[in-house]
Automatic annotation (TrEMBL):
Family of this protein: Belongs to the amidase family. GatA subfamily.
Residue intervals of the Amidase domain: 25-474
One Pfam family recorded for the sequence: Amidase
GO MF: ATP binding; glutaminyl-tRNA synthase (glutamine-hydrolyzing) activity; transferase activity
Description of how the protein assembles with itself and partners: Heterotrimer of A, B and C subunits.
Name of the featured protein: Glutamyl-tRNA(Gln) amidotransferase subunit A
PROSITE patterns according to UniProt: AMIDASES
EC number annotated for this UniProt entry: 6.3.5.7
Gene behind the chain: gatA
Record Gene3D superfamilies: Amidase signature (AS) domain (3.90.1300.10)
Length: 501
């Protein structure tokens, strides 16, 4: 069953529908893979073998009885641990939620369960999604399957590593400033941040509510489109959910795979290349532009001057929202509770002791920063000014999309760096998201497609951005690039990854 783990979700779906394999066989193959390699990778915080196999048996029985099932029914999936799952631990990578089992499912989990996808388990992440390397998890680092001494990106390094290590064909991530796309770039996987509001946030443990967005983590563009169509759509329980149907994402991916981009205008963002980008990253980017040109696209340079201030604005808006969202973790209602070692047991002292023991250093850093930015006398100077920059970034996107159909850039300025290299330099860590953050500030969709290896032999990502609610353009362009690249390489990029175990 080793070959089963290397098939795409679309290929597995076909074999399941034809009766060539059963969901139990597919699910067990992935559970065996997890048992074999996750000790080295540490992509999972919780493996739900019994529940996954129970779902698989149910799907197999229903399919055998002739029931019409969802196209992905029986294909296993992993879920980032910031998404609440009834009956499974949901920790957001934090000691303050260690052992917490939610009484309800997130909307996207409800959709996954209803469609019959066995949930393999919950994946590791930076605590409360705060990080770019998955080194800020309270439960240990995740390792990059391409080089176990390097980071898998963050905050969703667990989901990306699970997919890259063939421990899951599909996974769910969340993207607040690049936490799906940047791990995709450094692990050689496909990561999609949908339009803000395109996938329900109900049941996501919030970090920054105006920025957070759940999305697919997969090995192919088509697989991302299939998963995106499953989890997307309007949800009345999420006040920010878009009350419109999704565009035809799977059709767009299949159209793009044919390789014809005639009439499409592609804008290269001047501000998202150059200084700070590895030479190998820029070389693969130029090669990908050449492939898009060969497919019929017109490449033009586009300037988005406010993007230069995006990182600074983001690191005021995001911590401000996080400090507000994380106030609920107070030791009073759920999760960790720590009482003071001596003196009176008051609400204030329990809260201080609980948060001091339960939050890691990076979370504390961002909560302090956000609380300061929102404090009296500083609100307008910091948070208010950052929101004005956000408006300018949105206007830059509007102006750019008046000229071109999509915008492109490298996903991340560098390949995966060694574990521990940037832990003591927060600014160096934050700079990993310089190319991904603008999309979150504007709410537009983005995808990272693996586009080769840098000079160090590690994966590189190509980012495509589209206007809000035009997610189908991501899939058309992404699938065309993927097809051209695989034709040039003679197969998927992950075929060139070192074997684990």
């Amino acid at each position: 069953m080793t070959d089963l783990i290397r098939l795409s979700a679309a290929e597995l779906a076909e074999k399941l529908q034809s009766g060539e394999v059963t969901s139990v066989e597919v699910t067990q193959a992935h559970l065996d893979r997890i048992a074999a390699v996750d000790g080295a990778v540490h992509a999972y915080l919780h493996v739900s073998a019994e529940d996954a196999l129970a779902t698989a048996r149910d799907v197999d029985a229903r399919r055998a009885a002739g029931e019409q099932l969802h196209p992905l029914a029986g294909v296993p999936i992993a879920v980032k641990d910031v998404v609440v799952t009834k009956g499974m631990p949901s920790t957001a990578g934090s000691k303050i939620l260690e052992g917490w089992i939610p009484p309800y499912d997130a909307t996207l989990v409800e959709k996954i369960r209803a469609a019959g996808l066995p949930i393999l388990g919950k994946t590791n992440m930076d605590e409360f999604a705060m990080g770019s390397s998955t080194e800020h998890s309270a439960f240990g680092n995740t390792h990059n399957p391409w080089d176990l001494d390097r980071i898998p990106g963050g905050s969703g390094g667990g989901s990306a590593a699970a997919v890259a290590a063939f421990e899951a064909p599909l996974a769910i991530g969340t993207d607040t400033g690049g936490s799906i796309r940047q791990p995709g770039a450094v692990t050689g996987t496909v990561g999609v941040k949908p339009t803000y509001g395109g996938v329900s946030r109900y049941g996501l443990i919030a970090m920054a509510s105006s920025l957070d967005q759940a999305g697919p983590v997969t090995r192919t563009v088509l697989d991302s489109a299939l998963l995106h169509e499953l989890i997307g759509g309007h949800d009345p329980r999420d006040s920010t959910s878009i009350p419109e149907p999704l565009p035809a994402l799977v059709d767009a991916a299949r159209q793009g795979a044919a390789g014809d981009l005639s009439g499409l205008k592609v804008g290269v963002v001047t501000q998202l290349q150059g200084e700070g980008y590895q030479p190998g990253v820029l070389a693969r980017f130029q090669e990908s532009l050449d492939l898009l040109t060969q497919a019929g696209a017109e490449i033009v340079e586009v300037s988005c001057p406010s993007f230069d201030a995006a990182l600074a604005a983001y690191y005021l808006i995001m911590p401000s929202e996080a400090s507000s969202n994380l106030a609920k973790f107070d030791g009073m209602r759920f999760g960790l509770r720590v009482e003071p070692e001596e003196g009176p047991v008051t609400a204030e002292r329990v809260m201080a002791a609980t948060r001091g023991a339960g939050f890691g250093d990076e979370v504390k850093r961002r909560v302090i920063l956000g609380t300061y930015a929102l404090s009296a006398g500083y609100y307008d100077a910091y948070y208010g000014s950052a929101q004005k920059v956000r408006t300018l970034i949105q206007r830059d996107f509007d102006a750019a999309f008046a000229q071109v159909d999509v915008l492109v850039s490298p996903t991340a300025p560098t390949t995966a760096f060694p574990l521990g290299e940037k832990l003591d330099d927060p600014l160096a860590m934050y700079l990993n998201d310089v190319a991904t953050i603008p999309a979150n500030l504007a709410g537009v969709p983005g995808i990272s497609v693996p586009n080769g290896l840098s000079d160090d032999g590690l994966p590189v990502g190509f980012q495509i951005l589209a206007p809000a609610k035009a997610d189908d353009r991501l899939y058309r362009v992404g699938a065309a690039l993927e097809a051209a690249l695989e034709s040039a390489w003679g197969g998927p990029l992950l075929d060139r990854a070192p074997e684990l175990g």
